[in-house]
Amino acid sequence: MNSNSQHASPRPAPIEDVQGRTDPRRLAINKVGICDIRHPVSIAQRVGGHQSTVATFAMYVNLPHEFKGTHMSRFVEILNAHEQQITPDSFQLMLEEMAERLEANNGHIEMYFPYFVDKYAPVTGEKGVMDYEVGFIGDRVDGVSTLYVEVQVPVTTLCPCSKDISDYGAHNQRSLVTIRVRADAFFWAEELIDIAESEGSCELYGVLKRIDEKAVTERAYENPKFVEDVVRDIATRLNDDDRFRSYRVTSENFESIHNHSAYAMIEHDKDAE
C-alpha cells in the first residue's frame, strides 16, 4: 500500500443545500435576489471605444412556494462572467442566463451607472465634462425578455408665465428629465441625452466662461417652457422615431421660487395602439 494513501485525509461530508429544502408555508415570492451591489463595467461609446465606469446592480428572480430559498452566490457569479463589456445584447444574455441558472420563470435585472460625455461651451468652445445617469432594465417573464434603456438628464427650464407677467426677468431652475424607452432597433444612449437636452429651455455645461453664460442665459429666456411643454415635446420626438416602441418621459422642475417641485409624466406603448 502506498504510504501516502495511509495518511490521506478523509473526504469531507457533503454539505446540505438548505435553500433547497421544502418550505411548508406555501407562499411564492415575487422577487428574491441581490441589490445595491456595485461592479466595474465597460460601456461602448458613440464616439468610439469604451468607457470604464461602475454600475449599481439589482438582480432578482421569482421563487416558487415549495422552495425555502434561492442561491444568492449564483447572481454574483453571473455578474462576474459579464463584467467586461456590457451591451444591450450581452445584458439580455445575462438576464436569460440568470433565469436558467436559478431555475426561475421570471427574472429582473437593473443596472445604473454614471456616464461621462465631453461637452464644449457654446461660444468659447471650452471643453468640459457632463455626467449623466444611465440605466439598463431587463424583465424576463415566461421565457420572454424585455429590455429598457433609461437616461436621466439635467436641463434648465424658464417659466413662460413668469416671463410673460414680469416687467423684467423670469425665474428659471434646474430640471431633471428622465426618459425610459423600449426599442426594436439599435440606438445610442447619447441619442436620448441629445433629445432631452434639446427640449429643455437650455442645456447644461461643465465649463462656461462669461460670454458662454450670457449665451445660455439668453437662450433660456428666448425658449421658455413649462414642465408640461418639456414632456410633450420629448414625447413628440419619440413618437416620430419608429425604433422606440414604448416610452415613459418625466420631468421634475426644482422650483427656484416655490417650496415644491413641478412634475409631469407621459407614457405610451405604440404596440398597444
TrEMBL record:
GO terms for molecular function: GTP cyclohydrolase I activity. Its EC number is 3.5.4.16. It comes from the Bacteria. The record marks 159 as: May be catalytically important. Pathway: Cofactor biosynthesis; 7,8-dihydroneopterin triphosphate biosynthesis; 7,8-dihydroneopterin triphosphate from GTP: step 1/1. Coiled coil: none annotated. Pfam families: GCHY-1. Keywords: Hydrolase. The keyword Transport does not apply. Converts GTP to 7,8-dihydroneopterin triphosphate. Belongs to the GTP cyclohydrolase IV family. This is GTP cyclohydrolase FolE2.
